[in-house]
C-alpha cells in the first residue's frame, strides 16, 4: 500500500496509508543503506510503499518514491553529515510578527532566499494583528510595502480569526512547512485551522530542544480539511544552505531582475561601477533593507571559504 510518512522517531516511522489508517513502520534493510551522506534515509513527507503486517497496525517500508524536493539541515557549515527534515514540500510559510516578538527583516530575507534556493514557493503570514497599535500598524504597512510585490503576504490573527480564511485556503490540499521564531504563534495558528490537532502552544518541547539539533524531529499533521502541515520544533528557519557568492542574487527576485542591466557580466551587485542593482536601491526601486540582507548573505559566503 502507498502512504506518506508523518513522523519519524528513532527506527519507527508513522505512515498514513492511502486507506486513511495509521501504521507504525520499520525500514527494510536495503533502503537503510541507499543514501549515503544523510543521517536519515526517510523523512516526513516521503511518499512510500509499505507491506502491512497481519496485525493491521505495523508494517515495513519497502520503497521510498522519488522526492520532488527535500530540505536538509547540517549542524554547521563544515559538517558533512546532513539531516533531511522534510520532503515533498509544496509551500513554505514564514510566520512573522511586527511585535511580541519582533521579526527582523534580515531573518525574513534569509528565509525567503533559502526557499528560493530550494525552489519552494514562500508566503509570509504576519500574525497577531489584533495586538498592533498605530506605530506597529505603520511598521506592518512598511513590511507589506516591501514584501507584497515579491511574495504572497497574509495578515492574520490566530486569536480573533481575522484573515484566517485566507490561510485556510492556502493550506488546503498542500504540504506546507510552517516556520518562524519561537512565540510568533505557529502552534496557535495550526490549532485555529484544525482544533482537532491540539498542538501544544508555547510549546514546552521547544524549550527542551533548544540548541540540540540532533534530537529535533519534525512532524507532519494531516489537516481534517485536507492538506498537511509540517512543524519543525526548535528549528526557526531552514538553516544553512550552500550558496555561491556569485549566485546569491538569483535568490532575491527583484535583484535578479535589476541585475540584467548591470554593465559587467560578473557584477556582484555591491559596489561595482555601472551596477543597475545599486542604482535601483538609490532610486528607491529596491528596498534598502532587502539590499542590506543581500549584502550580508554575500559576505557570509565570502568568509566561509577563507
Ligand atoms: P509558537 O512558538 O510559534 O508555536 O507560538 P505559540 O503558538 O505557542 O504562541 C505564542 C503565544 O502567542 C501564545 O501565548 C499565544 O496565545 C499567543 N498568540 C498566538 N497567536 C496570537 C494572535 O494572533 N494574537 C494574540 N494576541 N496572541 C497570539
Ligand atoms: Zn550589479
Layout of secondary structure:
Blueprint lengths: L1 E8 L2 E6 L4 E6 L1 H6 L12 E6 L5 E7 L5 E5 L7 E6 L3 E6 L8 H13 L4 E5 L7 H14 L5 E3 L8 H8 L3 E5 L6 H8 L10 H6 L9 E4 L5 E4 L21 H6 L17 H7 L5 H17 L2
Parallel strand pairs: 3-5, 8-9, 8-11, 9-10, 11-13
Antiparallel strand pairs: 1-2, 1-4, 2-3, 4-5, 6-7, 12-13
Helix pairs in contact: 2-9
Bound molecules: guanosine-5'-diphosphate and zinc ion.
The site of guanosine-5'-diphosphate has 18 residues, from helix 5.
Summarize the structure.
The chain is built from nine helices and 13 strands. By secondary structure, the chain is α/β, with parallel strands linked by helices.
Shape type: globular
Most strands sheet: 6 strands, mixed
Residue share in helices? 25-40%
Instruction: Report low-confidence residues grouped into runs of 5 or more.
Output: 202-215
Strand content: 15-25%
Q: Secondary-structure element sequence?
A: EEEHEEEEEHEHEHEHHEEHHH
End-to-end CA span: 50 Å
Radius of gyration: 21 Å
- Main-sheet strand order equals 10-9-8-11-13-12
Secondary structure tally, helices:
9
| Arithmetic mean of pLDDT | 88
- Structural class of the secondary structure composition? alpha/beta
**Small molecules (ligands, ions, cofactors) in the structure:** guanosine-5'-diphosphate, zinc ion
Number of strands: 13
